[in-house]
Design a protein that fits this description.
Length: 333
């Protein structure tokens, strides 16, 4: 096919509301080790909300267009691409560029769309399953039989984390709003807690017979720090992946020392390309077959046409969703 010189993408206007518009922009061109993908579906992540407001710029050299994951078909390959062909169905974790009709991907970052999954289902996988897998099993090194506490269990990352833990033989405790708790039980959470009831510490103690949990996955930060540290057992690991509850807090170093706690700060987007390639390789080998076997699955809350991206952002900001909010990419323009 003749490659397009322009495409449509979501553009952020520099006005008071940071208005989003579906407009014509130049189409990217693949380098020697890249592929050009015709995108059929993308997904929202909280990083998109920050980037829209100017608080989370993409890494140097990455697309300024929002969107950290996508699914689509390869339409062109660079001269050094050997493992992929035009027409292959792929999904990919991106550094940016997913809210668009086309994007360029490093061939090493591509994953095949699992058998039986739609474009929308495949696009719902990369960001949340990379984040959950990286932080639970590469950073915290959760082992079979250990107990894991997942905060914000109804988020995209939370729903992925619960499923991964169950697949790996972990007992899972999860927190969320009361109206979302049943969804977490269905996903496999062994015990759930309404975050609006206040401190979760006594609940954790009851559920673990006073021992505490081995691993905590936390996107909240400061407001949960004290209870998180007290909720961990000896040699416990707290992985901090967000700051929704603030960035500044006092810490009891005595608790950290006596329990031999490891506090791990972790982000995904800012990691080097080589680090992301290593994570991709591990995911493809360790968990990717579980999607075709229906042992893991994408959790989709709602799908929007890409032209309604502002409504999709408003839904994410409302905090009522369970799982992923998706964008269906149009090629009619």
């Amino acid at each position: 096919m003749t490659l397009p010189s322009t495409m449509h993408a979501v553009v952020v206007h520099d006005d008071d509301n940071r208005t989003l518009a579906w407009e014509s922009v130049p189409c990217p061109e693949p380098g020697p080790g890249d592929v050009l993908v015709r995108i059929h579906a993308s997904a929202l992540n909280r990083a998109d909300l920050l980037q829209r407001r100017g608080f989370y710029p993409p890494p140097p050299g990455a697309s300024e267009i929002m969107g950290l994951e996508m699914a689509g078909e390869i339409v062109a390959v660079g001269e050094n691409v050997s493992n992929w062909n035009v027409g292959d169905r792929v999904c990919c974790l991106l550094e940016g560029g997913g809210y668009a009709q086309y994007t360029v991907c490093d061939q090493r970052m591509l994953l095949p769309v699992p058998e039986g999954l739609s474009w929308l289902e495949a696009a719902a996988l990369p960001e949340v399953f990379y984040t959950a897998y990286l932080n639970l099993f590469m950073e915290a090194k959760a082992q079979p039989g250990e107990t894991v506490l997942v905060h914000a269990g109804a988020s995209g990352v939370g729903t992925a984390a619960i499923q991964l833990c169950k697949a790996k033989g972990n007992r899972v405790l999860a927190t969320a709003s009361e109206n979302k708790l049943e969804a977490l039980r269905v996903l496999g959470a062994d015990a759930v807690f309404d975050r609006h009831q206040g401190s979760f510490l006594e609940w954790v103690k009851e559920e673990t017979d006073g021992k505490g949990v081995d691993v905590i996955l936390d996107p909240v930060g400061a407001s949960y720090l004290e209870d998180n540290l007290k909720s961990l057992c000896r040699d416990g690991r707290l992985v901090l992946i967000g700051l929704l509850g603030g960035r500044d807090a006092e810490i009891s170093l005595g608790t950290v020392l006596l329990k031999r706690i490891r506090l791990i700060g972790s982000t995904l987007r800012s990691r080097s390309r080589e680090a992301k390639v290593s994570i991709t390789d591990a995911i493809q080998k360790d968990i990717w077959p579980l999607f075709s076997a229906s042992e893991l699955k994408p959790i989709i809350h709602q799908v929007f046409p890409v032209a309604d991206v502002a409504e999709a952002h408003a839904l994410m900001e409302s905090n009522v969703s369970v799982g992923k909010i998706m964008l269906e990419i149009s090629h009619d323009e």
